[in-house]
Amino acid sequence: MDWLQILSNTASSILSPATIGYALAALGLAVHFGYAGLINMGIAGFMAIGAYGYAISILTFGLPWWLGAILGLVAAAIFAIILGIPTLRLRGDYLAIVTIAAAEVVRLLFLTTAFDDVTGSADGLSGYHASFRASNPIPEGTYGFGPWTYNETQWWVRIMGLMTLAFAVLVVWMLMRSPWGRVLKGIREDEDAVRSLGKNVYSHKMQSLVLGGVIAAAGGIVYALPAAISPGVYVTSLTFFVWTALLLGGAATVFGPLLGSLIFWGLQTFLSNVLPALASSGLLPFMSPIQAATLRFILVGVALMLLVIFMPQGILGNKKELTFVK
Asked: What is the pLDDT of residues 188-217, one digit of tens each?
């Protein structure tokens, strides 16, 4: 077993586009659940709309990458409004059921052959990278050190992802320290009390749904920057993984989603390397390497249950402020 290679791959995942995309999605979910108390189980739908909106804008309409990214975010905002109008008066489990169904509807729309010319149906979309890569100011070559050595294109993806994440963190941090953010926290604790003070609870919920949805869509765009888009990525398990990252770091925090995403993807990468190696070496004799690689998803599910039971506030969260079940 090559431990050096395993540790190198794990360290490299810290700066991967997947980690950055998950961090953005988890930050958007923190706005929904951590601050507004909205149990959104359809975060994968927002990520899909951001990614597909970005790619379709480039492939179908020939727009530059930056305008395609803006249209992907606008599409996510429109989706949030359409989703929120009939559902934001629901609470708890009912909202969770509706949002998870909405995300599946979005995925199936992208998967159907009726829009094959636009969405690529089961084949997904690819070939939308030329405009983004042409704007890369980094000279051709390989840069970095150790496991963080990448070529100019890989660095460009990571730099844009980190800049987007830093901007989103700054926006959420400033908003949650404002009167608007304090109203959201009040809605999370007791929306009837907030309503009795003359605040428009429905409007604030809608605003938080739009804001968090746009941030999650940005995560979907970053996730799709280095590779092709496949509808098989935006399944329900993606939502559960984002929830795991959020709860691990701390739902009612700004930096918790970042820490949770980093730990989540680090462990995913570590286990995806270690478990097949253990199976190949005979230390897991009852499993093949492929079965051992799948075992990590079972471990993620177990970890999510343990988090909800024993540490619902997360690593950076305050137990007195928020728990998963009140």
From this structure: 988 999 999 999 999 999 999 999 999 999
> Which one has a higher pLDDT value, 80 or 318?
80
Report the C-alpha gap between 193 and 21 in whole angstroms: 36
Sign of CA dihedral 74, 75, 78, 80: negative
Q: Give the CA distances from residue 201 to residues 42, 175, 182, 183, 215, in Å, rounded to whole numbers and listed in that order.
A: 21, 17, 12, 9, 21
Helices (H) and strands (E) in the chain, counts: 13, 2
Own/partner contacts of 293-296, CB < 8 Å, gap of 24 or more, are: 295/271, 296/268, 296/271, 296/272
Under DSSP, is residue 150 helix (H, G, I), strand (E, B) or coil?
Answer: strand
pLDDT per residue over 20-51, tens digit each? 999 999 999 999 999 999 999 999 999 999 99
- Alpha carbon 69 to its chain centroid, in Å, reads 16
The two structure tokens encoding residue 101: 């169904």
